[in-house]
Write a structure and sequence with these properties.
It contains four helices and nine strands; from the N terminus they run αβαββαββαββββ. By secondary structure, the protein is an alpha+beta fold. The strands form two sheets. The chain has a five-stranded antiparallel β-sheet with strand order 2-6-5-4-7, with helices on one face. A four-stranded antiparallel β-sheet has the order 3-1-8-9, with helices on one face. It is globular and about 45 Å long.
Length: 194
């Protein structure tokens, strides 16, 4: 790693999983955790929905990103999505990433992710992968076969209130951690739960 690479930030835009939703997720995945002791489980406080991965970014770009994301968030009212289902990438037969799904039936999450992409398009080319709303709960290396068939009925887990998004820096290493650089309330102001 060069000094220039080391001085860059690894960034993404995310919706944090609030404590209540994190608790519901933890309860739902408890049986799976017991069955997969070798998996690397994401701590509940680090779980999030990635709206857009930005990758290696010059720190001087952060104020520009904050301005663009503030504008993008201002055009959205808070909303709630269902947390539903357990799944894996690339498949349950060869699971590398375990996730809980977010039901985007009305497309709100997809439109929010598209709004984020549109706001930063001048500097960040569109992601080629389709947006797939999920919260990663574990990683498996080597991949494992899960005892749940593809297309199994979705497990009802709870709901997630989407009230803000954040610009997050990821610190890699033996003890990875996330650092929230800035948060952007939807609608441009804080909204009380309701």
């Amino acid at each position: 790693m060069t000094a220039a690479t080391a001085s860059r930030f690894r960034l993404f835009v995310a919706v944090a999983v609030p404590a209540e939703a994190a608790s519901s997720i933890e309860t739902a995945i408890r049986p799976v955790k017991a069955a997969l002791p070798g998996a690397r489980w994401t701590p509940p406080e680090r779980r999030h929905l990635t709206l857009r991965f930005l990758g290696s970014t010059d720190p001087e770009r952060v104020p520009w990103l904050e301005d663009r994301l503030t504008r993008a968030a201002a055009g959205w009212a808070p909303f709630i999505v269902a947390v539903r289902g357990l799944g894996a990438f690339p498949s349950t037969r060869r699971a590398r990433v375990l996730w809980v799904g977010l039901d985007d039936a009305d497309g709100s999450l997809g439109r929010l992710a598209a709004g984020v992409q549109e706001s930063i398009a001048a500097e960040y080319p569109p992601d080629r992968r389709p947006f797939s709303p999920h919260v990663t709960v574990a990683r498996c290396d080597p991949p494992v076969a899960l005892a749940m068939p593809e297309g199994a009925p979705a497990l009802e887990i709870g709901s997630l209130a989407v009230r803000e998004m954040s610009l997050v820096r990821s610190h890699l290493g033996s003890a990875p951690r996330y650092e929230t650089l800035a948060s952007f309330p939807l609608g441009g102001v804080e909204h009380a739960p309701g």
